[in-house]
Amino acid sequence: MKRVIHIVMSRPLSILGVGLIALVLFSALFADLIAPFPEHRGTVVDFSNFNQPPGWPNIMGTDLVGRDLFSRIIYAYRLSLILGAVVLALATPVGVAVGLAAGYLGGWARFLLMRTTDVFLSIPPLVLAMSIMGVLEPTLINGMIAVTAMWWPWYARLVYNITLAEREEGYVLAAEVIGASRTHIMFREILPNCFPAILTKMTLDLGFVILIASSLSFLGLGVQPPTPDLGSMVAEGARYLPDSWWLTVFPGLAILVAVFGFNLLGDTLRDILGSGQ
Amino acid sequence: MRAVFRLLVARLFVSLLVLAGVSVLIFAIARVIPGDPARIALGPNATHEQVAALRGQLRLDESIWSQYAWFVNDLSRGELGQSLYTNRPVVKDIAQFLPATLELVIVAGILMICAGLPLGMLAAKYRGGVIDNVVRLLSLLGVSAPSFVWAVILMLLFAFYLPLFPIAGRIDTAFEVPGVTGFLLVDSLLDGQVAAFADALRHIALPALALALSGIGQAARLTRANMVETYDRPYVEMARSYGFPEWRIARSYAFKPSLIPSLTIIGLDFAAMLGNAFLVEAIFAWPGLSRYGVAVILRKDLNAIVGTVLIISAAFLIANLIVDLLIALINPRIRHSRDAS
Amino acid sequence: MSVPVLDIRDLRLAFQGFDGRTEALKGISLSVNAEERVALVGESGSGKSVTARAVLGLIQERRDTELTGSIAFEGTELARLSTAGRRRLRGNRISMIFQDPVSSLNPVYRIGAQFLEVIRRREPRISKREGCARAAAKLSEVSITEPERVLSSYPFQLSGGMCQRVMIAMALINAPSLLIADEPGTALDVTVQDQTLRLMRQLVLEHRAAVLLISHNLGIVREYSDRLYVIYRGRIVEQGATDSVFRDPRHAYTRALLDAVPRITRTGIPVVGEDVEAFSAPCEIHAEAA
């Protein structure tokens, strides 16, 4: 613990990362209390106050139907975080199981599983998610499915590589010698050794899932209005550049802040857990 | 050199296998749509007969296996079917839009390598110092925003507030460049139009940079990490013990061997760019595959979706082949190995 | 005798780490005369490798270290030279052989190219052909039968023993007056190590170079050195002619070290005790024997 505090405190960037994430999490959790106009996350229209530049009381300005941008960004954070958490909660177990099985069992299991993984990895990530969204209706749930489908192969590959290295280690051999079952060896012996790398990757990925999800909704293939979403806010605002710059700049910076924070945190975590990957 | 050739043939074979897998995957995704694609494509006002005719034309009434067999049959003749959106062969559509996207991605890729590798090298050489921290911060910022956010920021800064670059398009309409390769930067030079080349370059600068920024950050971070690791190798100490100049050690002893693991990931970043091009093209009104891709996806234009994804995946596999070839050329272990596996 | 090749006086070295200052060397004095073979013996962490790197001037370039005392090479004080001046000595007048020959050669360049680079340290303008010819000649001196093939190979294509010979040839090609051998060949198997050490001894004699042999292996030290220094926790605890020290070890640590050598007649491998009080006793100096 002392080492953890030392590593975090000795790096200004780590402190910044922890601070940014705390800010994002806090605003997402207590959105109802922080947002000055909580009702603006929905279909409120206030034409008397539309397209206002940043000022008071709308510190980030208002959108084209007069909704407070700051309030909408805070609610968008809540949505992004839920989406990121769900995607990782779905993608990680799938990828880990595939990677473990392919790495430890070898043979046909490896061939089949890793070649399938390769197929998924050889479609550029965004394009795969786009085509899945293309055939499904653009809803939040479908968005999660699409991003999950493009995400699990990365965990499969990560765990596969670690498993390949670990299965040669003495402790695995020892377990085999005393006749432990394959499931026991995979999940009880090898899996715990993958945890530091998986945890680091999940922290980094939480940011990248938010990034990809916002990219999908930017293209109109994600969450639909009026639900506030950072990507679709940028897409909508981009039509009114440069005059209504706040419509794009603030949601864009909001994405940057969240992803940057998770990246800094992931980097710090990597140093603490000391995993190379 | 024969080992490199053997490796290339083996990788080509694997790539074709993977591409076959991609076709199955994409085909499966496209045909498992809930609802009737023909009905969706024609809209709610179409008559029963029209929908039935389209179903027949798309062979939707046959089994999924037979549909895939027809698809492969078409593919072997270089056909990807008819687009329901443009009513033209998908191959023609893609041939029209792909060069613009490829040109953008290639320029961004060059930017990524030319900026990312030297930055990472500098950071590793002066690790722990000011340069290292600045590079770390910048590269982390680079990877932390989607390319459409960078596109918006770059556009506001360098096209609106400082009107240095054009806002949209590939080239000024005043120029007439004959299409040979489809790459305006190449075609304009082939035709000897230096002014057109300069104009195309000005147009591509901002979109390419927006697309490259996260790749630059990624490449810099990776190069730094791998180089720092290589700096701890015994042969670097040996080089120091022989008093080789530091810059020489940085280049030949730390950078070159560390390039081998870096290149693989750079290939993956290239793949990400092929996808992210969609985002940047939308902001800069770049006449590439993006608008077409999004349009066909929104219209559930099956043939066009399958064709677009297949072509992009093929482009990615080719890029990876090139990366494999480069690695083989750098890594003597591969170049001189007896069995290429 | 004239000026010693290497003369170290009261060398102290401290690293600035996470947990504050660590003293690696607490006042080391040792000297190596021309054509003499001197060993520095100690367990890992005793400071012997750090001493070698200080002689090469590699420690001086790190910012987190504090180095005091004097290192004189052929009468020139290293601290008075510039960084570039110290670099000029390396590979020219002083060269070093490392523990693991295979990983000490650059994996992505041919042996020939690496040789050429070393030769150009001394003669920057030498042609590629002449450099290769000289390298090939030196390789035959270390009993490599096909020098041309070795020069056009990459390190991974050669055996460990072969790489060790290449390193020896490389270290001697510029005719240095001091050769530092840091645990030479420890990464190799014992017979190969023995062969290459014999080669090194023979070549060093021919080149009239002095040797500073750094090792934890008493067998090697006994075989390949004239004089030795025993180092323990950054201090020299015993010094003298090799024969004399082996015959009559006076310091408690030296005796413990000698006892720790596994002998066939005994069972099990004894371990050198941790920080026995007697190990901190002052240095035992054997009088120069005639």
Description:
The complex is a heterotrimer of chains A (277), B (341) and C (290). Chain A is mostly helical and 277 residues long. Chain A has 11 helices and no strands. In chain A, helix 9 runs parallel beside helix 10 and helix 9 (182-218) runs antiparallel to helix 11 (246-273). The model of chain B has no long low-confidence stretch (mean pLDDT 85). Chain C has a domain at 6-96 and 176-285: P-loop containing nucleotide triphosphate hydrolases (Rossmann fold), CATH 3.40.50.300. Chain C is 34% helix and 24% strand. Chains in contact: A-B, B-C. At the A-B interface, helix 5, helix 6, helix 9, helix 10 and helix 11 of A face helix 1, helix 6, helix 7, helix 11 and helix 12 of B.
Topology:
The complex is a heterotrimer of chains A (277), B (341) and C (290).
Chain A lengths: L1 H8 L2 H18 L1 H4 L34 H37 L1 H15 L3 H11 L4 H27 L3 H8 L4 H37 L11 H9 L7 H28 L4
Helix pairs in contact in A: 2-4, 2-11, 4-5, 4-7, 4-9, 4-11, 5-7, 6-7, 7-9, 8-9, 9-10, 9-11, 10-11
Chain B lengths: L1 H30 L5 H6 L5 H10 L6 H13 L13 H36 L4 H14 L3 H15 L22 H7 L3 H38 L2 H8 L4 H39 L4 H10 L3 H29 L1 H4 L6
Helix pairs in contact in B: 1-13, 5-6, 5-9, 5-11, 6-9, 7-9, 7-11, 8-9, 9-11, 10-11, 11-12, 11-13, 12-13
Chain C lengths: L5 E12 L2 E13 L4 E5 L6 H9 L8 E9 L2 E2 L5 H7 L4 E4 L13 H12 L5 H14 L5 H5 L8 H13 L5 E5 L7 H18 L2 E6 L2 H7 L2 E6 L2 E7 H6 L4 H8 L24 E2 L5
Parallel strand pairs in C: 3-8, 3-9, 6-7, 7-8, 10-11
Antiparallel strand pairs in C: 1-2, 1-4, 4-5, 9-10
Helix pairs in contact in C: 3-4, 4-6, 6-7
Q: What is the CATH homology-level superfamily of the domain at 6-96 and 176-285 in chain C?
A: P-loop containing nucleotide triphosphate hydrolases
Estimated radius of gyration of chain A = 22 Å
Helix count from the secondary structure assignment of chain C? 10
**Helix/strand order of chain C:** EEEHEEHEHHHHEHEHEEHHE
Mean pLDDT of chain C: 85
* Secondary-structure content class of chain A: mainly alpha
What's the total helix number of chain A? 11
What structural class do the secondary elements of chain C suggest?
alpha/beta
Provide the low-confidence segments of chain A as ranges: none
Named at the architecture level, the CATH assignment of the domain at 6-96 and 176-285 in chain C is 3-Layer(aba) Sandwich
